[in-house]
Amino acid sequence: AGPGGGATVPSGLVQAMASIHAGTTQKEILRSLLDASAGYAARVALFVVKAGAATGWQGRGLGNDDAVKDFPLDTSSGPVAHAYQNRVAAPANIAEMDRRFVKQFGGPDNEQILVLPLVLKEKVAALLYADGGSSALLDAASLEVLVMSASTWLEVASLRKQAQAHREAGEVAAVERPGAPVQTVTSFPDPFAGHAPKHVARSPEPEPVA
Questions:
Q1: Which of 48-52, 56-60, 173-177 is most confident?
Q2: Is 85:118 a contact under the CB 8 Å cutoff?
Q3: Which of 27, 47, 172, 197 could form a disulfide with 127 if both were Cys (CB 3.0 to 4.6 A apart)?
Q4: What does the alpha-carbon distance between residue 185 and residue 198 come to, in Å, rounded to a whole number?
Q5: If pLDDT is split at 50, 70 and 90, which confidence band does 171 have?
Q6: Using one digit for the tens of pLDDT, what is the confidence trace for 8-44?
Q7: The whole model's pTM is what?
Q8: What is the largest CA-CA distance in the chain?
Q9: Do 43 and 177 contact (CB within 8 A), yes or no?
Q10: How many CB atoms lie within 10 A of CB 155?
Q11: Can you give the C-alpha Rg of the chain in angstroms?
């Protein structure tokens, strides 16, 4: 408890959030999220959601970091569907998870898993899978904080990028046409626009970059 009797945030979690906020690009933020999450779950994997389909991006503790790359995750049932449709963390038993995922990557010894939605602009842009592997390490509350922190920082990074582009456009307009009005950009950039699942539409760049 803190000086006033209230609970304090563990220093490790504060440092994990700071590492996420140190990222300036979508790739950096998402990699930091996975690295930070690996301190609160034995195995984690990030799946990018595009056009209702979820495909693997990177993971930690499931082999090499790219072990889940392009893996098509079933979003129609189980905890994945619950997290995607309701935009809430979905704890579950591994038996409820996508059978293809379990067949390829196995499950935790205690059978407990968690699927969390990464929400941007009120839409689920990605899903984080986590379990305790053989160590039973699965801190659901801390993982939720990290995912929410990453969601917020992704929006901040996107808005900063948008503002920078607007400023640069203004500078160009001022040089080429002094006094000319600059069109304001109002759309919210999609940080996963560059990630197209194999079973939807492939993009030359498989990484989730705007």
A1: 56-60
A2: no
A3: 47
A4: 31
A5: low
A6: 667 889 998 898 888 888 899 999 999 999 999 999 9
A7: 0.75
A8: 67
A9: no
A10: 16
A11: 19
What is the phi/psi pair of residue 50, to 5°?
Answer: -145, 125
The vertex-75 CA angle with 78 and 70, nearest 5°, equals 125
Q: Which residues pair with 49 in a beta bridge?
A: 54
Q: What letter represents residue 160's amino acid?
A: R
Predicted confidence at residue 166, as pLDDT, reads 67
**Res 188 pLDDT > 50:** no
What is the Cα–Cα distance from 78 to 98, expressed in whole angstroms? 7
User: Is residue 7 a contact partner of residue 106, using CB atoms and an 8 Å limit?
Assistant: no
pLDDT (0 to 100) of residue 167: 72
Asked if 116 and 91 count as a contact pair (C-beta separation under 8 A), the reply is no
C-alpha–C-alpha distance, residues 103 and 106, integer Å:
6
Counting DSSP H helices and E strands in the chain, the numbers are 5, 6
Nearest to residue 21, comparing CAs of 202, 145, 184? 145
Number of Cβ within 10 Å of residue 15's Cβ equals 11
Amino acid in position 159: L
Burial class for 117, CB neighbours closer than 10 Å (0-12, 13-18, 19+):
buried
